[in-house]
Design a protein that fits this description.
alpha/beta; 456 residues; single chain; ten-stranded mixed β-sheet
């Protein structure tokens, strides 16, 4: 980000606009064309949009010269002129491949980032829970949303600010104190591609008040042929607030087409005694980047991060995670796995920060990678930054291939080479997939692993 000069006494020469700055300005102008929802929430959204636009105007698109982006090449994205996706009417039968029995009546659907009430079904929603869009919040919630919306860490990051600059509506899940939500809530974000490149900017905010508990499925999919060469760009932001002793199991699923670009931010704030689990599953796309940022603001807070990336062809998948601890007795466990085939590249950069105040912390981080071809690549950088002197912390990374001895053993038992390969790959992925608590989702994702490894 370019820092503006504070002094007004010295005249500064006018800076020339770089090509990437011009590109960013084009996205900003497109973003601001989105109409804000009407009603009392409109003023709040307009103020936030302007704050986001101000940040974008002072920023530039990251390049490989930026440390956090040195393996994430955005050159293919910059070749395309994206237009803001508009409202699309989608027939209900399109949903069949995305529906989950456990959440059939607790479902919110957004098409191109725009709420679709006719495709949503909230008839089985628990009392004490709001699930809907920003425009339908009651007056009390509209007043309280000021405390949460756009207030998470990382708001100054360029793509997060770009999303805020076009904030017109969004998905909201709000759980009242002491409410336990038995059924998972399904947030389904669909992209309807067209002949010209389009982009959308979904926004989600989840507030779990004290002593509440819920499960959320945040699902990104594309309507139509997954092998389509129609380019599109999804720039998603999710803000999560867990109050004292709240629990959230967050399942973030991304399965897009071969020419899709997906950049996502998940920012989570945890108060004391809260429990947060993220199961991140990604099945490809031309470019995928997820910035996962967790802030433990209270003592005895628990964070569990599980990730599975399966990519092939020339796809790139980049996961950057950051867990910041600020109080004693924090717990962090992270396991991130990548299955990489063909000429694809996976990137993992996980950072856990344990300052002096975070004594008696227990943190572990492991990145395991499976390369299925000689030209597959992985860049891994697990990090621990510790200044506390009474902690238990460990981190590590492994990169391996399918073992010839294991393949030989399975083939000697009558399996074909392809079946033997899949069995080993399935076992590698199962450690993550088995942590997903929703049975139908777990089964469907297991099938997706089989499909991905067969195609790749």
């Amino acid at each position: 980000m370019t820092t503006p000069v504070a002094s007004e006494a010295i005249a500064q020469p006018k800076q020339e606009t770089t090509p990437t700055d011009s590109y960013l300005m084009g996205l900003l102008q497109q973003s601001q064309q989105q109409s804000v929802v009407k009603g009392e929430i409109a003023t709040l959204l307009e103020n936030l949009r302007q704050q986001g636009a101000d940040i974008v105007e002072k920023s530039s698109i990251p390049t490989k010269n930026d440390e956090d982006w040195r393996f994430s090449d955005l050159s293919e994205l910059l070749k395309l002129d994206f237009n803001l996706a508009g409202k699309e009417k989608v027939s209900s039968h399109i949903l069949e491949e995305f529906l989950l029995p456990e959440a059939a009546q607790t479902r919110l659907v957004f098409v191109n980032g725009i709420y679709s009430p006719e495709l949503s079904d909230l008839s089985a929603l628990t009392l004490g829970v709001y699930a809907g869009n920003l425009a339908a919040l009651d007056k009390l919630q509209k007043d309280k949303i000021l405390k949460y919306l756009g207030q998470q860490q990382g708001a100054n990051e360029v793509f997060t600010a770009l999303n805020t600059s076009g904030l017109a509506d969004g998905a909201v899940i709000w759980v009242n104190p002491n409410v336990v939500v038995e059924q998972p809530i399904h947030l389904l974000f669909l992209t309807a591609t067209c002949d010209t490149p389009t982009f959308s900017q979904p926004r989600t905010i989840i507030v779990a008040e004290r002593d509440s508990s819920l499960q959320v499925i945040e699902n990104y999919g594309v309507i139509g042929d997954e092998n389509s060469d129609r380019p599109y760009f999804t720039n998603a932001v999710t803000e999560i607030w867990l109050e004292e002793n709240a629990r959230l199991n967050h399942n973030r699923i991304q399965r897009k087409s071969g020419y899709g670009f997906h950049i996502g931010k998940s920012a989570i704030s945890q108060e004391r005694y809260s429990h947060y689990t993220c199961n991140e599953i990604n099945f490809g796309g031309q470019f995928y980047r997820h910035n996962l940022e967790v802030s433990q603001t209270g003592e005895e807070t628990e964070t569990n991060l599980n990730g599975l990336i399966t990519i092939g062809n020339q796809q790139l998948a980049d996961t950057h995670s950051l867990v910041s601890l600020t109080k004693p007795y924090g717990r962090v466990e992270q396991l991130h796995k990548c299955i990489v085939d063909d000429r694809a590249r996976a990137v993992f950069n996980g950072k856990i920060i344990v300052p002096q105040k975070a004594q008696l912390t227990n943190a572990s981080q492991l990145n395991r990678n499976l390369l299925l071809s000689p030209k597959a690549r992985v860049n891994t950088k697990p990090e621990l930054q510790i200044t506390a002197d009474n902690v238990k912390c460990a981190h590590g990374a492994t990169v391996s291939q399918l073992e010839a001895d294991e393949l030989f053993y399975l083939r000697s038992r009558g399996l074909s080479e392809s079946d033997a390969r899949y069995l080993l790959i399935d076992a590698f992925a199962a450690e993550i997939l088995q942590r997903i608590p929703i049975k139908s989702l777990r089964h469907r994702l297991t099938q997706c692993v089989a499909c991905q490894t067969t195609i790749n």
